[in-house]
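Lab notes, practical 5.
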Amino acid sequence: MHTRRILFYNLLGFALIASWWLPSVLFWTKLDDDVFFFFNQFISPMYPRWVEAMALLNTRAFDKVMFGVLVIMLFFAMVRDKNGSWPKWLAIGLIMSAVGALLGEMLHMDLLAARPSPTVWHDEVNILNNYTFLNAKATASNSFPSDHGLLAMVFASFMLRFADRLIASLAVALAVFVTMPRILVGGHWVSDVYFGALAIALVVLPWILCNAYISRLIERMARFFEATAHRLLPRYL
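Output from the prediction step:
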């Protein structure tokens, strides 16, 4: 385990998290506003197809679909893993979920003050629901970091360590895909989303890529799951 390298990247990540407001106070404020108003011109009755597409990508139903996509990607990562089996990938999935939930709880509840989303900050300039019949999410209760970006980044980090190149590349692309619509409709500031993603990557990814203990934990959990399955379902295994 490369402890010094891990701690160095963690320090950068925690610095970004601790000073999450700094980009807006200094040089990111103008960019945040420019991005918001640039995409705001598309959120109008003049672009009905664009509006409906953005609304569709920002519904609770779409979130459930994306969760299904992550499960499917996890399944194919297991299938394409020549040295792995279902106990190993079940362990990876559980650890990955725990890491994502823990980070989300720490960031939103303990470490950060809430920053209003752009539509709230700009007096609801581009509320998507004004132009669509779909019940779309046009705001976010906490702009930094994006929940979509946080979970997608954690998923991509694990895939970069344990999956093959194809699945890892798709996971990274997915992290961009699920966060972009939230920026387009003003749900999140662009600096919050990508500074948040960078901070998560600097905190999580070094531990996942360089820490041998994670592999050992996964191996132990996999052996436990396999032994339990043989005890409970001896006829089918």
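Observations recorded by the TA: The chain has eleven helices and no strands. The chain has a mean pLDDT of 79.
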